[in-house]
Amino acid sequence: MNKIKLGPKTFLYPLPTVLVGSHVNGKPTFMTAAWVTIADPKPPTLAISLMKIR
User: Can you tell me whether residue 23 is helix, strand or coil?
Assistant: First the structure.
C-alpha cells in the first residue's frame, strides 16, 4: 500500500490533550492544553482556551 498525502487538515477527534509551544523572552516554552477545538477547517485553524495565570 502506498502512502497518501493528505495535506493540512484539522484532525482533532477524539479531543486529545495537545502540546502548545511558543517563544517567551527568546526561549521556547511548552505546556499541555486539555481544551482544544477546531475553529475553522479552511484554513486549518485550532482554538485553545487558557487562563491568564497559566
Answer: strand
Q: Is the pTM of this model over 0.85?
A: no
Rounded-to-integer distance, Cα 18 and Cα 48, Å: 10
Contacts of the segment 13-20: beta carbons below 8 A, 24+ positions apart? 18/46, 18/48, 20/48, 20/50
Q: Are 46 and 36 in contact (CB under 8 A)?
A: yes
Name the residue ranges covered by the structural domains of the chain. Answer: 18-48
- Give tens-digit pLDDT for 1-53: 899 988 887 777 667 788 989 999 999 999 988 888 888 888 888 888 888 77
